[in-house]
Structures are given as C-alpha cells and as structure tokens.
Design a protein that fits this description.
With 525 residues, this protein is α+β, with helices and mostly antiparallel strands. Helices cover 30% and strands 20% of the residues. The strands form 6 sheets. It has a 6-stranded mixed β-sheet with strand order 11-16-12-15-13-14. It has a 4-stranded mixed β-sheet with strand order 1-10-9-8, with helices on one face. Helix 16 packs antiparallel against helix 17. The longest helix is centred in the C-terminal third of the chain and has 18 residues. The two termini are 28 Å apart.
Length: 525
C-alpha cells in the first residue's frame, strides 16, 4: 500500500508543489523519520525514530508528565513497601488493548518475562529491567520465570528489585517496560514486526508500514482517555535534510526538527521564525574513542592528547552556530549531579603534542589512520565529525577519514564494540546520572561501545547505583565523572537544545525533558 504523502513528496522533488497546502493535512500530524525504523518491538526498540512511533502505540505502568516527573499511566497509583525494593502497582480498571481485549496484571508479567528471554536477545532488557529480582537469571537462561514480578490479582502487580534502586521507577517509563497483547504475536520468541502483532493500549494504532517510504498510524477508538483528536499520524521516511525542509515549506509536513546549519536562515525568515520552538534536552554530544579496537589509542596519554587538541568552543560557536551550549562535563544540566565545571581538559594543542610525543608518537607518527564514524543523514553530525577531524589533523598531524553509517549499522557495530572513533550523542533514557555514567561507560554495560574499562570507575558507580541517599550518590558520581574525563575515552563537546518548526495550525504538543509526550492531545485547526 502506497502512503498518501508519496504524491506530495514527488511533486516537491519535481518542483511543482504549491507554496502552501492548508487542506492537505486536515486533522493529520505529519513529521518525518530521518532513518528507517529498526524495530517496532517495545522489548527491543532503541533508536529514536522507532521509539517515537512505539510510544504512540504502547504504554506502561508509569509515564513522565509535563513536569518530567514519574506519574501514573496504566497504574492509577502505587506504593513502595518498607523494604525500599518492593513496588505494588494498582492498575486502572476497564482498560483494553486496541483489539478490545481487557488488560490485566498478568499481561505485564508475561511481557516483562518475554522481553528478558535469551531468544529475544534484547539489549534494552539487559540495560533497563535487569534490576528486577531474577531478571539476570532469566536473561542468562538460568530461569524460566521472572521471580521479582508477581500477579497479586487481575488489577494488582508487585515488582521487587534485587536491591534499593533510586532510579527504578524512571526505568519503568521506557518501552521495554510497556505492555502489549502477547497473544497477537503468537510465537513470543520472534520479534514484533507485522501490523496485526502491534497491539497496545496507546492512543494510536499502526495502520501502514513501508520500510522504504514510511509509517502511518490512526487513532485508537478504544483509547482509555477517549479517542485522540487527531485522525492520523504520518511519518514519511525522508533522509535528506533539504527535502525535509522543502516539504515543511510546502505544507506537506507540519512538524520538523531543524538541522543546525538551517537555523540562522530560518531565524531570519519573517514567517518561519515565528514557527521555531526550542526544547532543552538532557543530551550530550561527544567525541568517543574506543580504548581497544585501534592500536595506540589504549594509551591514556594518546587519548588525553586528542582531548586537548579538539577546540570544542570553535565547534559550538562556529560549526554548530551557537545552537547548543558548550559542555562542561558529562552530565547535562537537567541531570541530578550536574556541575557547571567538571575537570575537562582545556584546548591546548602545544601540550597535546607533548603528550603524544611522550606516548611514543611524535607528530602522530606510528599511529594508524583514524576512522571517525557519524550517523548518516544527520548533517549536524557530519559537520561535527569533520570539525574534530580537522583539529586532529592540524594540531597533531594525524591521518583522519570518515564513515557515514545508518542507524542500524551504527547500532550493530557499537554493540560489537567495533566503532573506533565516533562523533555522536547520548540522550538520557531516564533522568538520572546512572544512565550517563554506569550505563554509558561501565565495563560490563552493553551500551559501552568505547570499551572503557576502569575498576575504580566501576566501583564508584556501583556504590552510587546501590545508594538511595542523594548527597552520597552525587559525591560518588562526581568522582566517577572526573575519573572518566581524566581517562579521556569520552570528550564532551556540547549539550543539546532542539529546534523544531511547528506549523501554526498544530496545537496541543506536550513536552518532557526527554522528548514529546504521545500525541493524544494534539489537534490540527
């Protein structure tokens, strides 16, 4: 089935589109995907474009509200027992899946257990629900049941963690903790991929999928809060930034994330400048150095030299045109434990050259060519990567090349720890320093593509992860952050501020720090 936006896209590409199209998207929200969806399976989803679709279809026990606080979702309330590790959730009554089946607590247990089975091989389950008692045994194939999840009755679910976990409720916001109708899948060991398998309780249902062209969703008439105001959401796959902007100008898109190189021009446009909206995001843009895959870069002095040869302020002010604030640590401003001045290496090319010489590589001689990866179809990341490469060539005499990788390729290579160098970003999965330190840089973390290993760093993070006292946790994470910066596997560049074009007829977009909420309240008028 061909999607209705394809005709519009074709006319744009041939230069025949009208300057405005006010009736084309009546009661339809249309915003593009930069990359093809990797998966629609809430038990496995990781990439941003796929997650933005999944969150419209599936819900969990809790969700973030507009104050970015954990709030009731499918659970109307919960209590934490005196042991600090047992959570009792009371489900809303008479909630149904989009196929009419009644939701029960047993559905949550079955979904969590399925997400943790070795057959599914879910990185997200290993990262985000392994705190549940018995999850690690299930993930390792040593158990058939998730011991820490118990069905008290049809409306009551009890979840027990392996120990105190200050950030546990925030993890339950993620898709891997969402519920779906497992019976619609049939074989629980296979990945959810077909439309009839995508059965959730969310405000929308997937109605059309074409991996080359895009995804369409329609309103769920059975949604627990009432039918959404939108009839349809259209997500065309548009990899080229120039085409995306042309589609917005023509009226065939009504929401668009702006690339940095387009921002100054749009801000100078009398009409479009009024449609730009800014959103602060807890995300870090950084240059990552794999500590094991390329000979020579396992030496801390070499990595420190790279850190001191990169002019982050030039990248932020000139290359990214000041759209993002310069980073002064790993933890972004909206993350607990953030500091205005962590122990970053200063820009100092002369000292960098001395360090490289002390490490045995004067003028960069003896070091192999550096291949810097970045995400394809993201012009900002290409500019970021090229700017880093220019600094390293000019200041250290290194040979640098570049590799543009699509999200699936980037994800697969990162998981295998085969990305040698990357101009990339890490966006908060949940608003806690554990996600930026233990998850991103912990020795045993599946997200640690840098293969950074430090027993002292791990010990500090593990102690902080188990602690529930905010002051103690902050102190421990601060020490871990400074150690990681000293070891220079990660070179922070800037924090993120998103710019979006939102058409005047679009109303009701609700936002949290980690992204927009599901579009159940959005309308076009």
């Amino acid at each position: 089935m061909r999607l209705p936006w394809l005709f519009l896209l074709g006319t744009i590409l041939w230069g025949c589109a009208p300057k405005s199209n006010p009736g084309t998207l009546r009661n339809v929200l249309s915003y593009p995907m930069v990359a093809r969806t990797a998966t629609f399976d809430p038990g496995k989803v990781e990439d941003p474009d796929s997650m933005s679709i999944v969150q419209q279809v599936y819900e969990g026990l809790v969700a973030l509200n507009e104050e970015s606080q954990v709030a009731p979702c499918l659970a109307s309330k919960w209590e934490v027992l005196p042991d600090g590790r047992t959570y009792v959730f009371h489900l809303r009554r008479n909630v149904t899946f989009s196929n009419g089946k009644l939701l029960t607590a047993a559905d949550f247990k079955r979904c969590l257990e399925r997400n943790c089975t070795p057959a599914l091989a879910s990185h997200t389950a290993r990262r985000f629900v392994s705190d549940i008692d018995g999850a690690q045994e299930l993930l390792a194939g040593k158990s058939k049941e998730l011991a820490g999840v118990k069905v008290i009755d049809a409306q009551t679910l009890q979840i027990t963690t392996g120990g105190p976990c200050a950030y546990f409720l925030q993890k339950l916001v993620l898709p891997v903790a969402a519920v779906y109708d497992l019976q619609a899948l049939g074989d629980p060991s296979k990945e959810i991929s077909k439309i009839h398998e995508m059965v959730g309780t969310g405000p929308f249902k997937v109605t059309s999928v074409d991996r080359q062209e895009g995804v369409a969703l329609v309103a769920n008439d059975l949604y627990r809060e009432g039918r959404p105001r939108l009839d349809r959401i259209e997500r065309p796959y548009v990899p080229e930034a120039a085409t995306r902007l042309a589609m917005y100008r023509s009226g065939s898109l009504n929401n668009l994330r702006v690339e940095r190189q387009d921002l100054a021009r749009l801000e100078a446009d009398p009409a479009l400048s009024k449609q730009i909206h800014y959103f602060r995001r807890p995300a870090l843009w950084y240059f990552g150095i794999n500590c094991s895959v390329t000979p020579g870069f396992d030496k801390v002095q070499v990595r420190q030299a790279l850190a001191m040869a990169i002019n982050r302020h030039r990248i932020v002010s000139e290359i990214l045109q000041g759209a993002n604030p310069a980073a002064h640590g790993i933890l972004p401003p909206d993350i607990f434990g953030h500091r205005d001045s962590a122990k970053l290496f200063p820009y100092d090319p002369e000292t960098a050259r001395k360090l490289l010489k002390l490490a045995g590589y004067p003028g960069g001689k003896g070091l192999p060519e550096m291949v810097i990866w970045y995400r394809a179809n993201k012009p900002d990341m290409r500019l970021f990567a090229q700017a880093v490469g220019q600094d390293l060539e000019r200041n250290l005499g290194l040979k640098v090349s570049f590799k543009a990788a699509d999200p699936a390729q980037m994800l697969a290579a990162s998981s295998a720890k085969k990305v040698p160098f990357a101009a990339t970003r890490w966006s908060a999965d949940y608003l806690d320093p554990q996600d930026f330190l233990s998850v991103l840089l912990g020795s045993e973390s599946t997200a640690n593509f840098l293969d950074y290993r430090s027993r002292k760093f791990d010990d500090l993070c593990e102690e902080a992860d188990r602690n529930t006292d905010p002051r103690a946790r902050s102190s421990l994470y601060t020490r871990a952050e400074d150690l990681a910066l000293h070891d220079a596997a990660i070179v922070p560049i800037c924090f993120e501020r998103d710019a979006e074009l939102i058409a005047p007829q679009v109303h009701g977009i609700r936002n949290t720090l980690v992204g927009h909420m599901p579009n159940s309240q959005v309308s076009i008028r």
